[in-house]
């Protein structure tokens, strides 16, 4: 998993509440267990018209936001079914951070396991960030995980809370497998000792 330390990017304003995982990645894109190639399905029903052409009104299709790494979204982001493809699709598209007032618990947890930083802010703070994001290429946000701050181009700084263990994992690029691999020495020592004490196992 890629480390998350600091991201500076244009932020895409997605001013929709209750964005569920089916909206993030529709069910027809769930046939794969690969984490790559899912960008084409991200927000597919919003990004594309019925004939497959791009919807020019959708925020991620607008020139200013095509390379946005930060998403500023409405309340209750990631609700609905517990599909891990949702953070996979966001990450495959280049989104490293999602900011909202609240997240569905399963989606929130899945983000950390896949290298995405979900940040909870107050409604007042969200409005400030949306106002900044609406400026497009004329404004950028910097998300600093070590400092736990979001800095806007106008000098506004917003502090956010994060669980220390999750912060450690993101800063060091540790998913569940990475955490296990950190204990390789201890695991090998246990296996050697166990083989000597219980050779019949």
Assembly classification: single chain
Low-confidence stretches: none
Largest sheet: 4 strands, antiparallel
Give the helix tally: 8
The backbone outline, from C-alpha atoms, is globular
Number of strands: 8
How much helix is in the residues?
Answer: 25-40%
Chain-averaged pLDDT: 92
Kindly report the spatial arrangement of strands forming the biggest sheet. 1-6-7-8
Distance between the termini: 34 Å
- Order of secondary-structure elements: EEHHEHEHEHEEEHHH
SSE class: alpha/beta
Proportion of residues in extended strands = 15-25%
Radius of gyration: 19 Å
Explained architecture:
By secondary structure, this protein is α/β, with parallel strands linked by helices. The chain has helices spanning about 20-25, 45, 85-95, 105-115, 125-135, 165-170, 175-180, 185-195; strands at about 5-10, 10-15, 70-75, 95-100, 115-120, 140-145, 150, 155-160. The strands form 2 sheets. A 4-stranded antiparallel β-sheet has the order 1-6-7-8, covered by helices on one side. The chain has a 4-stranded parallel β-sheet with strand order 2-3-4-5. The mean pLDDT is about 90.
């Amino acid at each position: 998993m890629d480390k998350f330390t600091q991201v500076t990017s244009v932020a895409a304003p997605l001013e929709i509440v209750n964005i569920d995982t089916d909206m993030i990645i529709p069910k027809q894109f769930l046939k794969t267990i690969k984490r790559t190639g899912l960008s084409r399905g991200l927000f597919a029903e919003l990004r594309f018209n019925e004939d497959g052409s791009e919807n020019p009104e959708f925020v991620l299709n607008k020139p200013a936001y095509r390379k946005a790494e930060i998403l500023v979204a409405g309340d209750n982001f990631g609700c609905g079914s517990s599909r891990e493809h949702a953070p996979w699709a966001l990450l495959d598209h280049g989104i490293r951070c999602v900011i909202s007032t609240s997240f569905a618990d399963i989606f929130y947890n899945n983000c950390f396991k896949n290298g995405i930083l979900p940040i909870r802010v107050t409604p007042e703070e969200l409005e400030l960030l949306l106002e900044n994001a609406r400026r497009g290429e004329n404004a950028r946000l910097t998300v600093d995980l070590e400092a736990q701050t979001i800095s806007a181009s106008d000098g506004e700084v917003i502090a956010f809370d994060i669980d220390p263990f999750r912060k450690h994992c993101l800063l060091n690029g540790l998913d569940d497998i990475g955490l296990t691999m950190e204990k390789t020495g201890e695991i090998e020592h246990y296996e050697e000792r166990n083989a000597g004490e219980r050779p019949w196992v």
